[in-house]
Amino acid sequence: MSYALSSALQTAVYQRLSGDPALIDLVGQEIHDAPPQLAPAETPDLHVSLGEERVKDGSTKTSSGSVHDFTVTVHARTEGFSRPKAAAAAVCEALLGADLTLTRGHLVDLRFLSARADRGRPNETRRVELRFRAVLEDI
User: Fold this and answer.
1) Which secondary structure element, helix H or strand E, spans residue 132, and what is its range?
2) Which of 10, 52, 63, 105 is the most buried (most CB within 10 A)?
3) What angle do CA 20, 44, 36 make, to 5 degrees?
4) Residue in 62, 136, 71, 68 with CA at minimum distance from that of residue 104
5) Strand partners, 55
6) Mind listing the pLDDT tens digit of every residue in the chain (139 residues)?
7) The domain over range 6-138 is classified in CATH as 3.30.2000.10
8) pTM of the predicted protein model
């Protein structure tokens, strides 16, 4: 096991989200690898960012692999949870059941772990943090 598959997974997740018509309909092109560092007035009303990741060994006697727990966060400057929750649902639908193409390795499984909707940090009114688990095999 190594951290070698992390970049391939991140790229595949980003490409899947940034190419999903339902998510784009809700947030436009505001899908980021990291939250935009903008002045409060310039921060998009609704946007999505890839978040933290934790990786552990997923190898077996016959194959090398890793288990990646990662987050995708919907950030909103709007009152209420309706729009951020709709965007969070679109993220889930875009990722779950998707055949992600990795530049290295193979996606064995991708599942939803949890979600947390709360009041956000400064420049956010609401946010929804989604946690996923990807099992990868290095082939």
Assistant:
1) strand 126-138
2) 105
3) 85
4) 136
5) 68
6) 678 999 999 999 999 999 999 999 999 999 998 777 776 667 788 999 999 999 999 888 888 899 999 999 999 988 789 999 999 999 999 999 888 999 999 999 999 999 999 986 666 689 999 999 999 999 8
7) yes
8) 0.91
